[in-house]
Amino acid sequence: MIEDQIKGVLLAVILLLGLIGAAQYYYSHTTSEPFPELGILGPNQKIGDYPTNVLAGQNFTLYLYVGNHEGHVEYFNVLVKLGNNDSVVNGTNGMNAPVLATYRIILENNQTYLEPITLSLPNPGQNIRMVFELWTYNTSTNTFTYDYIYNQLWVNVTGVV
Predict the structure, then answer these.
(1) pLDDT of the chain along its 161 residues, tens only?
(2) Nearest Cα to 90, choosing from 144, 52, 146, 36?
(3) What is the DSSP pairing of strand 53-55 with strand 143-158?
(4) Cα torsion for 134, 136, 137, 140, to the nearest 10°?
(5) DSSP label at 35?
(6) Rounded to an integer, what distance in angstroms lies between the CA atom of residue 10 and that of residue 15?
């Protein structure tokens, strides 16, 4: 009789520990506030060491960083666009400007992407605004939608001397 009571208590303790372990596993693998990340790093993989003057048609390297903390696999599209002082980009609208480059990236939850990208600006100009926009694939519409996240760099592009 006492052995049955001891077995019952042990079974209850084991079940309780199992539930606690399952709850910790579940909550450690969920995202409470889902978000994506977009970053542009300079040629030394640092924020702030960006080129400010480049030659038209000459390649230069930056690093593209994208992070997924959405709680599920995401398909991202990063558009690099060229504009100027009058170009508008903000938290609600992507910039209406020519696309210089496109990068498509699939990331699992909590996965990041950091890769060098090589760009070249075709025409000379002052205060060229390079905008990097993050777009996410929308499975309901089967299109990419603007994620309201962007980075920008200002560069001067000189002609060949």
Answers:
(1) 677 666 665 565 566 556 566 556 555 555 578 999 999 999 999 998 999 999 999 999 999 999 999 999 999 999 999 999 888 887 778 899 999 999 999 999 999 999 999 999 999 999 999 999 999 999 999 999 999 999 999 999 998 65
(2) 146
(3) parallel
(4) -140
(5) E
(6) 9
State the pairing for strand pair 60-69/112-119.
antiparallel
Tokens (6 digits) for 32: 């409470």
Which stretches does DSSP call E strand in the chain? 35-41, 53-55, 60-69, 74-83, 99-107, 112-119, 125-138, 143-158
Residue 91, both tokens: 């938290």
Q: Give 138-143 contacts, CB < 8 A, sequence gap 24+.
A: none
